[in-house]
Amino acid sequence: MTDLTLDFPDGLPIGEGWVSAPSSEEVCFPFDGSVVAPSPVGDADLARRAVEAALAVREVVGRLPSHVRRAALQATHDEIARRREDFERLLVAETGKPLVDCRVEVARTLLTLQTAAEEVARLHGETVPLDLLPSGEGLLGFWVRKPIGVVVGIAGFNYPLLLAAHKIAPSIAAGCPVVAKPAPQTPLATLWLVHLVREALVAAGGPAAAVQLVTGGPEVGVALTTDRRVGAVSFTGSAAVGHQIARDAAPTKVLLELGSNAALVVAADADLDAAADAVVRGGYYASGQACISVQRVVVVESVREQFLTRLSERMGQVQVGDPREESTRVSALIDERSADRVVAWVEAAVAAGARLVAGGTASGGVVEPTVLLDVPDGVSAWDEEIFGPVVAVRSVPDLDAAFEVVNHSRYGLHASVFTASLETAFEAVDRIEAGGVIVNEVPGFRSDVMPYGGVKDSGAGREGPRFAIEELTVTRMAVIRPSTSTTSTRRG
Q1: Span 66-124, pLDDT tens digits
Q2: Phi, then psi, of 178 in degrees rounded to 5
Q3: Which of 120, 185, 257, 426 is the most buried (most CB within 10 A)?
Q4: Residue 176 annotated in active site
Q5: Which listed residue (119, 257, 470, 471) is catalytic?
């Protein structure tokens, strides 16, 4: 992987420049272990330094004209679009995801930046009819949105460019300085993104310190999230880590995009070919390392065997191999420890009574596309987020039972239902406890302009530029009596 060109300075972007990191680590290509590039590794002292620098420019960033914020985001979009193939190749190298998925990631990043730039023009308030109470007669009331302050954005390893963009772009649009922390395994694309945003900000008339980045382990995250002067923490990652951050950061506002074990329901009237295609397409993209990939498939009993036949016919079409190849759909997980854990969960499910009908083994960090049947409750492969190319199928007598099974989970991010009935579709939207209910499409469908987030242990708050900007701003109410010459004696 030595032919990659990384077009950003050495060190870490902290303050107005780039500073040396106390150490470095090699980023390796998960598929074969070859070195991609060395990466700077920060520490808690640099994290605190970044927060101080963000606080120092908080007022300046909060008062940046709309045209400056919009221009910076648009220029970042344009530069990434110009270097699109370079970013795609870098993402393949540091994540090990198939090229097809990295292309989708860059495309979605571009949409996120473009939409955030457009949302700058829509950041406004409203008037309020204060005279609904007699005491409000003669008063003018309106509210505006103000930046929440410094934002700490922590992203996961599976979509490092896109997840960072969902932290950084809304922060800039809202007028908030942001300190980003990428996952230790995948810092390079995020470093490049931050470099481009900083260059664009300076060119538009803003401070480089509006966007900073600190790499490192848990001690860096603790230093960033426990500083009470931070306005908001936005975290994407596992439920366990997210919950710990929420406890440690309190009372700071925390936005959590956490895991799930996304369910796909196959109704008796479903297009079974479309449903089987969706399970394969939605269960194995990004090698299963997506929080809304298909993990649980709940099939109404009357169509179980027909559905399983169709699913079996499609399993051989899932190409496994080198992620740089156009045809590859499943490749190495982020590291061998993750692959070992996935296989261990599959083996535990089989020991608990599940039947293994495809896959279940790993070689060199690559887990074969796996299908489990009749996984019981109380088993991690059904109850928890497996984060690998594993799909578990269970049958139920009817739709009522299907919805109960979907909701019998501590997670609730996305779920989907395949049906030909509009009545069933609306019932699913009404009854399924999730942040998103997708009908006749994979639960992994996400347009980056829509509100995205979960319920229960899948998180709190919403992403998507418009909705994230709302999360990262606070309303400020203005009440004005234009004249005191005829001030009413009423006060209330």
Answers
A1: 999 999 999 999 999 999 999 999 999 999 999 999 999 999 999 999 999 999 999 99
A2: -135, 140
A3: 257
A4: no
A5: 257
